[in-house]
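Problem statement: downstream parser choked on a complex file, so we are re-checking the raw output for the iron/sulfur cluster run. The parser issue turned out to be on our end (a line-ending mismatch), but while we're here, posting the original submission so the record is complete.
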Amino acid sequence: MSARAAELGPQALFGLDGEELAEVMVAAGEPRWRGRQLAEAIYGQRVAEISSISTLSKDLREKLVKAGWAVGRPRIAQVFTSVDGTERYLVECAGADRQTVETVWMPEGDDGETGDGSEGEKEDKDGGRWRRATICVSSQVGCAVNCQFCLTAKLGLQRNLSAGEIAGQVVSVLERQGVEVGKERVNLAFMGMGEPFLNYDNFMGAVRLLVKEVGLSPQRMTVSTSGIVPGIERFAGEATEMRPKLAISLNAPNDEVRSELMPINRKWPIEAVMAAVRGVKLRARERVTFEYVLLGGVTDQPSHAREVARLARRTGLPVKVNLIAWNPGPGIAYTMPEEGAVEAFKRVLMGEGIPAYLRRPRGRDIFAACGQLKRTVEG
Ligand code: SAH
Ligand code: SF4
């Protein structure tokens, strides 16, 4: 290993695609096809150490380590378990800076994907360990978007995650839960810390790894954006077989309120976001989700619901609205909606013909719910 390589630590295999893994083997004087063995080991069998890759000879494993390689998958450093079964993980990146992000496992989901055209959404798993598990995945350490109601915003943007660090969260959780990919159903929500569309290449790189190498279906993945128009435009150009479903964090009934809550709206107002979304070619029965956080007194009134219904109709898009009661966080001066306000909001939307669903808050007691993700260990 060179002096610089020693300083940076070993290079991660995790995050490389099939072609790149083949190159690693060629550089080590091995045939290209051995790249598949590497891919199968780190993405299929979820092996976390080169020394444990049983399909490669001991000599070859040692050769790879000497050449400066490690699996380099982020690791679950701490686990917080909620009374509702949700687990929140502090995940530590393998790189030299040891940054941490949060990932959440919801064994019963939070109903976020209901009604958006997910394949087989009615065939709940009978007698299994869960019915509709969802993993909530982070895309950045912190976030630069500065939504006023969100705890992650308080961190500012620390750095982007690499494709391997994003996909690695998923593989680490699949490993911990012993999930049999292909047999057991798992949804992914790119709705953890960060704005995926401000880390576009790495986010989509992670999706490709998860689809091609890990074997997950993009139809069971949802990416949520605060409305980054250039990102949505690029997303519209992705192949349908490789594209997650799209959710837009609307969060307000009009531009005036939205600009207050989400300063990004001044740059890309609602209509600019919707124009970009119209460019996304939807699958049969697929709907675009509007995420809508209800803030007591600010966005949770029946008049707001009527405005949202009008707005939804005006877009001309097949949409559904996911309602989320605001989850409190320290230092954020909003209040939760009053008892019954979320249900009433939903009734107004449904009455106006707009499908609306309640996102169940999961893991509030362990600070795992939407907008509550922040590093537990500050450093
Ligand atoms: N940055 C992306 C994805 C992560 S945020 C985005 O904003 O879409 C995921 C969701 O959590 C968003 O819909 C956001 O509006 C919501 N959210 C943020 N803070 C929240 C809070 N305190 N309570 C409830 N939902 C919140
Ligand atoms: Fe960032 Fe999303 Fe939080 Fe806004 S809601 S600050 S975009 S993570």
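For whoever reads this later: The longest helix spans residues 163-177.
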